[in-house]
Q: What sequence folds into this?
């Protein structure tokens, strides 16, 4: 059971927009920065979003992040088949004194 | 260009101690704010954070695994070593080392699969 809750799967058609939610609590998301990671099949994860809404160099602006209270959301617009991957949210948890991840969301581009 | 690479045994027996080395380049672990972390992923499962060490020797560990983990750094060799005691088959996973700069995991190693079996 992950500290951060993500939907197991989401799907959308190419060109569409999809959002992935990450639900936490006051000890993690509400008071710490959230990161999002993309893991393409058979590869190591890659940082997509950090500090809630910042993109590392090279990450297209089709990817966006936001937070509201104890939840975070990853948005992806203009879906491409190459976006099919597992997506994870992560942040620090003050109560646990631990970095925590969500259980991951598998994105399928139909 | 920041790169990290994990090395160590691919197979360990139950109750043995696992020692993994992360060898990195493109940054120094003596630079303010920089750290190296360890994350694992059992086959088909989610990511799990294990430990991290910062430039100032600050160490943090997963509460559930703290008693079994040790992380050390050798700044001169550009290496970070993770040891995990009392390995069990449930510890079978791909182990990643990551750079900590703008965030945990702004750069990742390729990962190394460790299987625990007798």
A:
């Amino acid at each position: 059971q992950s500290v951060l809750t993500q939907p197991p799967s989401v799907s959308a058609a190419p060109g569409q927009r999809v959002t992935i939610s990450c639900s936490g609590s006051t000890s993690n998301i509400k008071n710490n920065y959230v990161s999002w990671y993309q893991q393409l099949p058979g590869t190591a994860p890659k940082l997509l979003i950090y500090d809630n809404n910042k993109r590392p160099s090279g990450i297209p602006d089709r990817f966006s992040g936001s937070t509201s209270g104890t939840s975070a959301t990853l948005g992806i617009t203009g879906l491409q088949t190459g976006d099919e991957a597992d997506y994870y949210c992560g942040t620090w948890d003050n109560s646990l004194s631990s970095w925590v991840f969500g259980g991951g969301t598998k994105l399928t581009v139909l | 260009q920041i790169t990290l690479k994990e090395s160590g045994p691919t197979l360990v027996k139950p109750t043995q101690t696992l020692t993994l080395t992360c060898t990195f380049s493109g940054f120094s672990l003596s630079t303010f704010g920089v750290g190296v972390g360890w994350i694992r992923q059992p086959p088909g499962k989610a990511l799990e954070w294990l430990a991290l060490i910062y430039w100032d020797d600050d160490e943090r560990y997963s509460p559930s695994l703290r008693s079994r983990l040790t992380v050390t750094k050798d700044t001169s060799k550009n290496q970070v070593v993770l040891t995990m005691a009392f390995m069990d088959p449930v510890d079978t996973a791909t182990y990643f080392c990551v750079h900590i700069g703008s965030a945990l995991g702004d750069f990742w190693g390729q990962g190394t699969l460790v299987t625990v079996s007798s």
Q: What stands out?
A: Chain A touches chain B through 23 residues (CB under 8 Å).
